[in-house]
């Protein structure tokens, strides 16, 4: 697909899901920044970044949440977790 091809419905939903998960997984300014970037990409609907950064960001957010490697436990009560926590 060319960089200016529109996103299909599944791709758009994936970016929106990653954006929402970023808000819960990364509290504060980092989560807000990631959310805004992913949401804008999904809403605008075009692949403008030739380097694939937004796609890699979405994959990292979704992978972190699915693997449980997040800043906060979004499944439970929201307590921080990770090594030594």
Can you describe what's shown?
The chain is mainly α and 85 residues long. 56% of the residues lie in helices and 0% in strands. Helix 1 packs across helix 3.
Give a nutshell description of this structure.
With 85 residues, this protein is mostly helical. The chain has helices spanning 9-25, 29-44, 53-67.
Average pLDDT, rounded to a whole number, is: 74
- Structural Rg: 14 Å
Tally of separate helices: 3
Order of helices and strands: HHH
End-to-end Cα distance, whole Å, is 43 Å
Question: In total, how many beta strands?
Answer: 0
Helix amount, in percent?
55-70%
| Secondary-structure class | mainly alpha
Please summarize the sheet with the most strands.
Answer: none
The residue ranges in which pLDDT falls below 50 over 5 or more consecutive positions are 70-85
- How would you sum up the global shape? globular
Strand content: under 5%
Describe the protein's topology.
Elements lengths: L8 H17 L3 H16 L8 H15 L18
Helix pairs in contact: 1-2, 1-3
Properties at a glance:
85 residues, mainly alpha, 56% helix
